[in-house]
Write a structure and sequence with these properties.
The protein has one domain. It has eight helices and 15 strands. It is about 30% helix and about 15% strand. Helix 2 crosses helix 3 and helix 3 packs across helix 6. Strand 11 and strand 12 form a beta hairpin. With about 350 residues, it is an alpha+beta fold. The N terminus is likely disordered. The N and C termini lie far apart (about 50 Å). The chain is globular.
């Protein structure tokens, strides 16, 4: 399976190389016109504390492994943060035009705890095997509120992921160089302006689609500063979003928005084989650059992770995710009404 560096195939990203006018979103992510959010000097978590707490071991600690082999054990909330990552500074000198979009991640972070509690109830009687994926899926009834909560959380994790920020930064630098501007100038303002509406844009793009709850059984998933997803820009609403996001050591989510699919069931549960768990964890290492996190089972370190750079599956496509997308899109269990959420 081929890998591609972020610096390859630059026209694939479609990001903007100069400041663009922000879209206006009439929802919980919008800031009232009379209120200016002045940046504060603070740590912004790309691994939300409400999520990382689920990675604590029996001693209340999680483990961080860097690409150069350094192991750090600490409380989970100490990991996964960058100072002022969601602030926009237009120069090295304070300006009245500086702003922060850290507030946009408050609503999805508030959804994480009840969402995880619900996902922990998902189960499948079908044991892991080499059977075709369509024969291993168990339908899961999910109402629109929970579906929306899940996609908002996934969108927030993609939007804050250092791997996504790296893609945007690489794209803006490449396009600035292409039009004759200094590629290393203006990073601070351009990066923020290219991603400040990412939460709203991605949430809207993911309002439809399907997902599968992937269960690891006695094994554990890992998390990192990158994970499998195919979002390269939010300059325009992305189509066909697809991702695999480990939410806890026992639960990962596969989300996809195929071109064609049965509306119901809108969700499934899948018990993974050891090889499939290894694939998910390998993908985290490929898309990560500096850190991977685990609870109690140290991962086998891949050579790709030791390169200390964000990589990807070529064109973000791999046979297993293609097969899983086909399975969740086409698997039919009979009358759709059987899988409608119960009426209030």
């Amino acid at each position: 399976m081929a890998l591609a560096s972020k610096w390859m195939d630059r026209e694939y990203w479609g990001v903007v190389a100069a400041v663009r006018t922000a879209n206006t979103f009439d929802n919980e992510y919008a800031v009232p016109k009379h209120k200016k959010l002045i940046p504060k000097n603070e740590r912004h978590h790309w691994w939300p504390k409400t999520l990382s707490r689920h990675w604590a071991d029996s001693a209340g600690l999680a483990h961080s492994l860097s690409c150069d082999g350094e192991l750090v054990t600490s409380k989970p909330e100490q990991f996964g943060a960058i100072r002022n990552d969601n602030n926009i500074y237009l120069s090295d000198v304070a300006s009245p035009w500086d702003e922060s979009f850290e507030h946009t991640f408050g609503p999805p972070d508030a959804l994480i705890t009840p969402l995880i509690d619900w996902l922990k109830t998902a189960e499948s009687p079908i044991v892991p095997s080499d059977s075709t994926l369509s024969k291993r899926l168990t339908p899961l009834i999910v109402d629109e509120e929970r579906f929306t909560s899940l996609t908002k959380v996934l969108a927030s994790l993609i939007a804050r992921s250092p791997s996504f920020r790296h893609r945007v930064k690489s794209g803006t630098r490449a396009l600035r160089e292409r039009i004759g501007l200094d590629p290393n100038n203006g990073d601070r303002g351009l990066l923020g302006m290219n991603v400040r509406n990412a939460q709203a844009t991605l949430s809207e793009a993911m309002t439809r689609g399907k997902f599968a709850v992937l269960l690891s059984g006695s094994r554990e998933f890992i998390f990192g500063d990158g994970f499998f997803h195919n979002v390269h820009s939010v300059a325009n609403s992305p189509r066909g979003v697809r991702c695999i996001v480990p939410l806890t050591p026992a639960i990962a989510i596969f989300y996809t928005h195929p071109m064609r699919y049965h509306s119901y069931p809108s969700a499934f549960v899948l018990n993974l084989t050891n090889d499939e768990i290894d694939f998910v964890n390998r993908s985290v290492q490929i898309y990560s650059k500096r850190f991977v996190f685990y609870r109690s089972q140290p991962p086998n370190i891949e050579e790709t992770f030791t390169r200390c750079t964000h990589l990807q599956w070529q064109y973000d496509k791999v046979d297993w995710t293609d097969a899983l997308e086909t399975a969740v899109a086409d698997t039919f269990f009979g009358n759709d009404s059987m899988f409608y959420p119960p009426a209030e």
